[in-house]
């Protein structure tokens, strides 16, 4: 089950808004992707790397999919916590 109010989503929001300050917390809905929020591939990589650092987890790069919705990204990080 997706934890859309937990630490993982907070970390994703924090790092995404550090790159794109115009993003609002309400923009991070379950089905939207980071690309749809306006983050390019380098930005998305930075968000993922920083979230892994914050959570002190290592998620194999093979686990990430292109156009991964926020909810799936949260679930993925949660599995490795």
Structure explained in plain terms:
With 81 residues, the protein is an all-alpha fold. It has a single domain (7-79), classed as ACP-like (Non-ribosomal Peptide Synthetase Peptidyl Carrier Protein, Chain A), CATH 1.10.1200.10. It contains 3 helices and no strands. The chain has helices at residues 7-19, 41-55, 70-79. Helix 1 (7-19) crosses helix 2 (41-55). The longest helix is centred in the middle third of the chain and has 15 residues, at 41-55. It is globular and about 30 Å long.
Which spans have pLDDT < 50 for at least 5 consecutive residues? none
Total beta-strand segments: 0
Give the helices and strands as they follow along the chain: HHH
Shape field: globular
Average pLDDT for all residues? 92
Q: Report the sheet-strand fraction.
A: under 5%
Structural class: mainly alpha
C-alpha end-to-end distance: 14 Å
């Amino acid at each position: 089950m997706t934890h859309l109010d937990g630490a993982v989503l907070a970390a994703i929001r924090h790092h995404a808004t550090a790159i794109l300050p115009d993003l609002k917390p309400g923009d991070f809905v379950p089905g939207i992707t980071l690309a749809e929020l306006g983050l390019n591939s380098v930005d998305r990589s930075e968000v993922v790397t920083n979230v892994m650092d914050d959570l002190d987890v290592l998620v194999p790069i093979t686990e990430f999919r292109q156009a991964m919705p926020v909810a799936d990204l949260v679930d993925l990080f949660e599995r490795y916590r």
